[in-house]
Write a structure and sequence with these properties.
This protein has 327 residues and is of the alpha/beta class. It has a single domain, classed as TIM Barrel (Alpha-Beta Barrel). It has 13 helices and 8 strands. Strands 1-2-3-4-5-6-7-8 form an 8-stranded parallel β-barrel, surrounded by 4 helices. β1, α1 and β2 form a beta-alpha-beta unit. The longest helix has 27 residues. It is globular and about 65 Å long.
Length: 327
């Protein structure tokens, strides 16, 4: 009868020594926790999520622009950050604005949030050296993570071992360019101890619009905060890859890795794997998360279809709240 028991403990893991860096903070963190609890209940194994990232809509945010986010109170911010810490997860704020000014550094709301993050010993994802230096000076208990944007701004010929070694030394963690996931010679030589691989990138290989996409978020954020929706960049209207449904008739593969490719990188010595997904519908993100975390033959198909009902309940509740807000 043991063949009818799902894999248990480390046998339920795709990569037993891997850790995961996933979105959901200020978005659907409770759904992430519900997923972790379900996997543990069914498989006796807790997926080792090390980092949970995201940001409320504030000036320093360089992640995704969420137009319906009205901005949580500082009390809710603290609750969200401490909720992750209570589960042994490090909350990361995507303060990856691509360019800063002295005036922006003094933003009151961002600094209030940093006070809380410093208190809980969370981390920030950064791009701008001015912001990094400011955070290191004023919030010393916050860990520094180098954004994937930094590799996006570098040309292919610039992304050498020395380039990645410098990123490795600049922060606690760094992220390789998704194109470089396919350069096994380069990957064999970069620092691995604090490297992070982004494994479910939706863009095509060599996408020429990546840098513009990231810059558009920094350009749009002040406009969103001011309620000036008429002058937004509307980058996604021009993007050929996002949202994913635009790829419906493409024969081209996007840069999401296969399970076999990911396991190969794990066998090369990489241990931290990042997933994007703040703009994905939850069904897509959790499909990726669980297929890259769970043993593929029994554990993944034994968990995901059941957890999909939790996602359905989440979507129903979100729709109900929206209806109530418009009354």
């Amino acid at each position: 009868m043991d063949r009818f028991i799902l894999p248990q403990g480390a046998a339920a893991a795709l990569m037993p020594e891997a850790s995961y860096h996933i979105p959901g903070l200020f978005l659907y963190s409770h759904l992430v926790y519900q997923c972790l609890d379900m996997v543990e209940a069914k498989c006796g194994w807790r997926i080792p999520v090390k980092y949970l990232y995201g940001s409320p809509q504030v000036l320093w945010n360089g992640g995704r622009v969420l137009f319906k986010d009205h901005g949580p109170t500082i009390e809710i911010v603290e609750q969200e950050l401490r909720g992750a810490v209570d589960r042994g997860i490090i909350p990361l704020l995507t303060f990856s604005a691509t360019s800063m000014t002295e005036a922006w550094l003094k933003d009151q709301r961002c600094n209030e949030i940093m006070e809380v993050l410093n208190a809980v010993k969370g981390g920030v994802i950064v791009v701008d050296p001015m912001l990094q230096a400011y955070i290191e000076k004023h919030y010393p208990d916050v860990s520094i993570h180098m954004s994937v944007i930094l590799s996006t701004f570098a040309k292919k010929e610039e992304r050498t071992v020395d380039f990645y070694r410098a990123l490795s030394e600049r922060g606690d963690q760094y992220v390789l360019h998704p194109d470089d996931n396919f350069d096994l010679d380069l990957l064999s030589r970069v620092p691995k101890e604090n490297a992070t691989l982004l494994i479910n990138e939706r863009c095509g290989f060599g996408c020429p619009q990546r840098a513009e996409h990231f810059r558009s978020t920094t350009d749009d954020m002040p406009k969103v905060l001011a309620g000036d929706y008429a002058h937004l960049s509307r980058f996604l209207d021009r993007c050929p890859y996002t949202p994913d449904r635009k790829q419906g008739e493409m024969k081209e593969r996007n840069e999401t890795l296969s399970v076999a490719e990911t396991v190969n990188l794990y066998n090369m010595g990489f241990r931290t794997f990042k997933l994007q997904g703040r703009t994905d519908i939850p069904y897509v993100f959790f499909f990726d998360f669980l297929r890259f975390a769970l043993e593929p033959e029994a554990a993944f198909p034994g968990v995901y279809p059941i957890f999909a009902y939790s996602i359905l309940d989440y979507e129903k509740e979100k729709a109900k709240r929206r209806r109530e807000e418009t009354k």
